[in-house]
């Protein structure tokens, strides 16, 4: 249990030793690991929960205090994690504020259990309606329970493919001009967005990229590969490939957050209203958890050798 607590504190960005400058709440700013050795499992879980809540509310307070008086907003400096895996929450928050979207509609595909995802901040903190989609049955069970008491947020247990995505949006009564689309399906993201009907025109798209692939190559994994296949180093699409797809669909690719996992693109007609006020970084290397590693299971979890996913060049 102590190891679980340590991982939780690290996840929240908390120090293992004293915090001499007072960055964290008083009850955790000078944490002593030996003080928890005799705590019960229930007490440790309560402490873990308190640490996590402090991290969430602290991040929300930072968002509250943001202003947009600068001539140019750099999206790397916008990055902040409330619920997202990396800094996506802060980037998304700034983009919707710059675009003047007060209450919008979201669709997120590949939500997991809802604990750490791109649109949780929209659903829970900002009160947006929307749809979460998850294929894994165990993750979906936790996800559906999380939102079981609100009719504002819908959850779907579905395996999304390029062939069925547009029908899923139609059947879910998603507005044609909805606001945020997040795609994170570990590989086929490029093909799903490519095949999405032009009937649906989200203002902001957040899409997973494989920043371990050379930025000079427009390559994607072959269409039809199952997400159950091992996540080898050739999974998904390169940043250049996603940028080219964005352009072909009438979007401006703006920013890849520092971990190199997700790219933000904004629809051209709405981007014109902020084009002189925002800039980002598209040339990224793989930097999973900001540790300089790529995102393959083989690298991250010593998953052994697996045949690389077959790729297609767009050049």
Number of domains: 2
- Structural class per helix/strand content? alpha/beta
Shape: globular
Radius of gyration, Cα only, in angstroms? 20 Å
What is the annotated CATH architecture of the largest domain?
3-Layer(aba) Sandwich
Uncertain spans:
1-31
Could you name the CATH topology of the largest domain? Answer: Rossmann fold
User: What is the percentage of strand-forming residues?
Assistant: 5-15%
Tally of separate helices: 11
Per CATH, the class of the largest domain reads Alpha Beta
Helical proportion, percent range: 25-40%
Topology:
Layout: H1 2-11, H2 41-64, E1 73-74, H3 75-78, H4 88-98, E2 106-109, H5 120-125, E3 130-134, H6 137-146, E4 153-157, H7 165-171, E5 180-183, H8 189-195, E6 204-208, E7 219-221, H9 239-248, E8 251-256, E9 262-267, H10 268-271, E10 278-279, H11 297-300, E11 311-313
Parallel strand pairs: 1-10, 2-3, 2-5, 3-4, 5-6
Antiparallel strand pairs: 6-9, 7-11, 8-9
Concise account of the structure shown:
The chain has helices at residues 2-11, 41-64, 75-78, 88-98, 120-125, 137-146, 165-171, 189-195, 239-248, 268-271, 297-300; strands spanning 73-74, 106-109, 130-134, 153-157, 180-183, 204-208, 219-221, 251-256, 262-267, 278-279, 311-313. With 315 residues, the protein is of the alpha/beta class.
How is this structure best described in words?
With 315 residues, the chain is an alpha/beta fold. It has two domains: 56 residues, no CATH class; 244 residues, Rossmann fold, CATH 3.40.50. It contains eleven helices and eleven strands. The strands form three sheets. Strands 4-3-2-5-6-9-8 form a seven-stranded mixed beta sheet, sandwiched between helices. A two-stranded parallel ribbon has the order 1-10. Strands 7-11 form a two-stranded antiparallel sheet. Strand 8 and strand 9 form a beta hairpin. Helix 1 packs parallel to helix 2. It is globular. The N terminus is likely disordered.
């Amino acid at each position: 249990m102590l190891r679980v607590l340590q991982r939780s504190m690290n996840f929240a960005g908390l120090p293992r030793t004293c915090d001499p400058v007072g960055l964290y709440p008083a009850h955790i700013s000078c944490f002593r690991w030996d003080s928890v050795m005799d705590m019960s499992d229930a007490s440790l879980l309560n402490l873990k929960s308190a640490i996590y809540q402090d991290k969430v509310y602290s991040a929300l307070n930072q968002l509250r205090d943001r202003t947009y008086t600068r001539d140019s907003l750099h999206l790397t400096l916008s990055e902040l994690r409330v619920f997202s895996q990396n800094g996506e929450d802060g980037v998304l928050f700034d983009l919707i504020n710059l675009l003047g979207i007060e209450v919008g509609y979201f669709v997120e595909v590949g939500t997991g259990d809802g604990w750490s995802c791109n649109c949780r901040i929209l659903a829970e903190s900002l009160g947006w309606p929307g749809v979460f989609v998850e294929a894994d049955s165990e993750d979906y069970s936790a996800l559906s329970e999380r939102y079981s008491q609100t009719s504002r947020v819908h959850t779907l247990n579905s395996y999304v493919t390029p062939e069925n995505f547009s029908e899923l949006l139609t059947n879910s009564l998603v507005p044609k001009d909805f606001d945020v689309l997040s795609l994170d399906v570990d590989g086929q993201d490029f093909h799903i967005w490519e095949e999405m009907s032009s009937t649906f025109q989200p203002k902001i798209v957040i899409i997973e990229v494989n920043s371990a692939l050379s930025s000079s190559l427009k390559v994607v994994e072959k269409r039809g590969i199952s997400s159950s296949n091992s996540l080898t180093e050739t999974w998904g699409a390169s940043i250049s490939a996603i940028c080219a797809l964005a352009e072909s669909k009438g979007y401006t690719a703006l920013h890849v957050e520092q971990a190199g996992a997700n790219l933000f693109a904004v629809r051209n007609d709405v981007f014109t209203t902020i084009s002189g006020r925002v800039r980002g970084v598209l040339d990224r290397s793989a930097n999973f958890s900001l540790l300089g590693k790529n995102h393959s299971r083989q690298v991250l979890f010593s998953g052994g050798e697996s045949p690389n996913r077959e790729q297609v060049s767009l050049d």
